[in-house]
Write a structure and sequence with these properties.
By secondary structure, the protein is mostly helical. It has 6 helices and no strands. The protein has 2 domains: 66 residues, Arc Repressor Mutant, subunit A (Orthogonal Bundle); 48 residues. The protein is elongated. The two termini are 24 Å apart.
């Protein structure tokens, strides 16, 4: 996963667990695409301090994900919902084309639904 996308996801899930100061700096890097120098000037701290805060935030947010695995669960559920949507489309297409509609569609949907419920 591209680093900035990963940082955005981590922040979306766990950002509220950072301090207000850390959130401001991290948002500047991840969402506002500001440079270390721009943030340093805005916050009245050194570029090195901004760099250290961002690295510390990265490590903290990754630690939360290692422990809680919310993003992994989210991605897994998202993939299963996508499969359910594809099965639904295939079912509708088969039905419209007058093809024999297999009960395997509903069995697959039930299986995926069950897996999603277990993950929640």
């Amino acid at each position: 996963m591209e680093k900035i996308v990963e940082q955005g996801l981590l922040y979306d899930f766990y950002g509220e667990l950072l301090t207000k100061h850390q959130r401001q700096i991290y948002e500047g890097i991840v969402y506002d695409n500001l440079s270390l120098g721009e943030i340093a000037q805005e916050e009245g701290i050194s570029r090195q301090a901004v760099h250290d805060i961002v690295k510390r935030c990265d490590k903290t947010l990754q630690g939360y994900e290692e422990k809680l695995k919310l993003i992994a669960k989210f991605e897994s559920i998202k993939a299963k919902v996508s499969c359910i949507n594809q099965l639904s489309e295939q079912f509708e297409n088969d039905k419209q084309m007058g093809r024999e509609v297999s009960i395997s569609y509903s069995a697959q949907v039930r299986k995926l639904s069950s897996e999603i419920l277990q993950e929640l």
